[in-house]
Amino acid sequence: MKVELQNLTKIFPSRNKKSGGEVTAVNDFTFTIPDGKLVGLLGPSGCGKSTTLYMISGLQKPSSGKIFFGDEDVTELSPENRGVGLVFQNYALYPHLTVKQNIMFPLQNLRGADKLSKQEMQERALEAAKLVQIDELMDRKPSELSGGQQQRVAIARALVKMPRVLLLDEPLSNLDARLRLQTREEIRRIQKETGITTVFVTHDQEEAMSISDMIVVMKLGVLQQIGKPQDIYDDPTNLFVAKFLGTPPINVFNGKVENGTLYIGSDAVLEVGGVSDQPVWVGIRPEGFTPDDNGALVCKLNNVEVMGRDVSVVSTHEASANPIVRSIVNADNKIDVTAENIKYSLKPHKVFIFNKETEERIYFEVK
Ligand code: ADP
Ligand code: MG
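# adenosine-5'-diphosphate complex -> structure
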C-alpha cells in the first residue's frame, strides 16, 4: 500500500499561556512512501517523528494537509478504519493476559463481516506468532518474557490484523545493544516476508541506514532530505544531514574559497571549479583522507588506533570545528606514529562544502 503525505502540518497550541508560542511539530511534509518499502523516519529527539507517525495512524489529526493510502484519502478516517498496525517504544502489553491473548486482542473488536470465530482468531494469532518466532511461548505472561520477546509479541499484535501499513515508533530503544541488532534484522526479515509498507521511526542513524529502503531526514519539524541511505550519505543536501549521518562522524573545518582554490586554514587542499570567493564550512568524511607526503592538508598527529583492516588516525588542525580530526585509512598505509605531523591529500567526492550562513551545500566541479 502506497502512503502519500501532502503538505502535512501539525501545530500544537502552547502549553503555557503566558510564554505563548505554539509548536509546529511537523511543517508542510510532502512525500510518498512507495508500496512494500521500509522507510526510516530519522532525526534528533523532538523533530516531529512520532507526531508524523501518529498522524499516519490516525491517532492525531493534522492541522492541515492530507494523507492518502493508495488513492484513498484517509485524513478523516479513524485509526480503527485505516488498517494500520502500530508498535510503540514501550511495548504496552497487557500484563494479566498471556502472549496468545495479547496477540488475539485486536481481533476481538472486529465486528460485522470481519468478525472472526474463536478458532479463526487462534489460527491468526499463531500465524503472527510464528512470523516473529514466539509460537513456543504462547501461554506465558509478559513478565515471563525477555525485553526482546516482549517486543516480538508487540510486533505480532500489530501484524495480526494484517495491516495495510505497519508503523514502528523507536521499537528497539528499550533493548540492549546485542538484542537491538538482532531484532532490527528480524524486523527487516518480517517486513520483506510480508511485503507490508512500513514506517520505522528512529533517532539512530546507523539503525535507519542499515534497514531502510529509503530514509527521511528531519530537523525541527522540517524535512531535510529523502533518499536511499547510501545516496544521502554520499550526497548530503546540507551540513545538518552531513553531520547526522555516518560513524565516525564527518570532520568539519572552517574554510574559504579563493580564486577557485579551497583552503582549510592556510592549507590549499583542493581546486574547486564554479564557486565564487566566500567563507565555507568544509566537511570531509573519515574515509576521504589519504596519507600522502606531498598532501596539502597538514594535521598534528595525536595517535593511531589499530582496528585490523583499517586504522583510525586521530589528529588536530587549527581550522577544525571539532576537537579532533578522525580519518579512517587502510592499514597498508605505513604511518610513522612518532612523527609530529601527518599530511593528507583528499578524495574530492568525500569533500563537501557548505554556505557558512545557510549551511546549504555548495556544489563544485572537480578539476
Ligand atoms: P520526536 O518523536 O521526533 O522526538 P515528537 O513528534 O514527539 O518528536 O515532538 C515534536 C515536537 O512537538 C516537540 O517539540 C514536542 O515537544 C511537541 N509535541 C509533541 N506532542 C505534543 C503535544 N501533545 N502537545 C504539545 N506539544 C507537543
Ligand atoms: Mg518520538
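# post-check
The helical segments are 49-57, 99-104, 118-131, 147-159, 177-194, 205-211, 229-234, 239-244.
The longest strand covers residues 23-33.
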